[in-house]
Amino acid sequence: MYIFFFIWVLAIILIMPIYFLSVSHLQLQDKFGKEKGLVIAKIFGYVSGWGFFIFLFGIWLSSQPKFRIPFLEEKLISLPIINSSISVFHFIISAPIITIGAWFGIVGVMGTTIKVAETHKPEKVINTGIYSKIRHPQYFGAILSHFGISLLLSAFFSLLATPLVILLIYLISWKEEKELVREFGKDYEDYKKSVPMFIPKLKNSK
Fold it and tell me: What is the pTM of this model?
């Protein structure tokens, strides 16, 4: 009955090697030449980036048990588009979480450009704007959005999958940073020391 949920989970795990290859710019250039290597990395970036996003939607929207808070008499809002309903209480809690997650994602893309966000290939270390507060605003936003949407839809399996989503996003970030150190050396090492990976820095460094 819930087979599609597990198919989406398997898909998001299986796409990880493509994600890893998409950020291995120097390795691909050494193997295929500079121009061809960059083209291959770009293709891998598009496939893995959009694939991860689409598979998350599959996890959120696939058929799965719903959870409710038992001691509250909850009002439900019908959602005919996805043939489901949401709890008003869950909506009140999840709306700010989703909004904050979306904000981090949008501001993160604006700070790098869509091209860099899709291809994972910056031309330099970006350490201004939101990137002076957090190294991976888009991934932090994705984690918040996953948790918020799982809560909004009362999607029990999706909520249980949150630790897996966090782990996968951490591995993606770890791999990206490993490659960025290879490409930018001490500049990125210094950046890592001054800006946190996922928890936004609230105070400016003196």
Answer: 0.88
